[in-house]
Amino acid sequence: MHIRVFETALGLAIALVVCAGTAQAQGGFLTGNELLTYCKGGDSKDQAQCLGYIEGVVDTLAFTPRPCRLSGGVTVGQLKDVVVNALIAEPTERHFAAFSLVISAIADAGFCQPP
Predict the structure, then answer these.
(1) Measured between alpha carbons, how far is 22 from 38 in angstroms, rounded to an integer?
(2) Nearest-angstrom CA–CA distance, 113 and 115
(3) HSE-up of residue 89 (Cα within 13 Å, Cβ side)
(4) Tens of pLDDT, residues 39-93
(5) Which of 90, 100, 75, 76 is nearest to 25 (CA)?
(6) Domains along the sequence of the chain with CATH
(7) Among 7, 19, 87, 102, which has the highest number of CB atoms less than 10 A from its own CB?
(8) Secondary structure letter of residue 113 according to DSSP
(9) Is the dihedral of CA 62, 68, 74, 75 positive or negative?
């Protein structure tokens, strides 16, 4: 029973990532504007939210039909820098869902290596 629930949840997560594209944020999805606010925030709670979100997106990419393995030695600090720089560079895209913007930033930086 638990395996079936896990498989269903994993399938939904994969569908979200695969269909991300430049999905516009709706409902409870975090936007690029909100993620940038967390990442530029000065307190530890904001920083934890920023880093945790980015790590969560990257971890999810490992379970997609075309998995992303990070290049060796890439740190979460580097990932954050790449994501923040991409969000700052493209202000007209920040209203889109943060997960799609994180995926684009990491891919554009060349951090994803084929398995």
Answers:
(1) 20
(2) 6
(3) 10
(4) 999 899 999 999 999 999 998 887 877 777 787 888 999 999 999 999 999 999 9
(5) 100
(6) 2-113 (1.10.890.40)
(7) 102
(8) E
(9) negative
User: Tokens at residue 115, please?
Assistant: 């398995």
Dihedrals φ, ψ of 37, to 5°?
Answer: -60, -45
Mean pLDDT within 8-14: 42
pTM of the predicted protein model: 0.74
Which among 78, 77, 83 is positioned nearest to 37, based on CA atoms?
83
Grouping H, G, I as helix, E, B as strand and the rest as coil, residue 46 is: helix
pLDDT at 72: 80
Determine the Cα–Cα distance for residues 47 and 18; give it in Å rounded to an integer. Answer: 27
Confidence class for position 27, pLDDT limits 50, 70, 90: low
For the record, the structure tokens of 62 come out as 């490992």
Amino acid 106: pLDDT: 92
Q: Could you tell me if 28 and 13 are in contact, meaning their C-beta atoms sit under 8 angstroms apart? A: no
| Residues belonging to the chain | 115
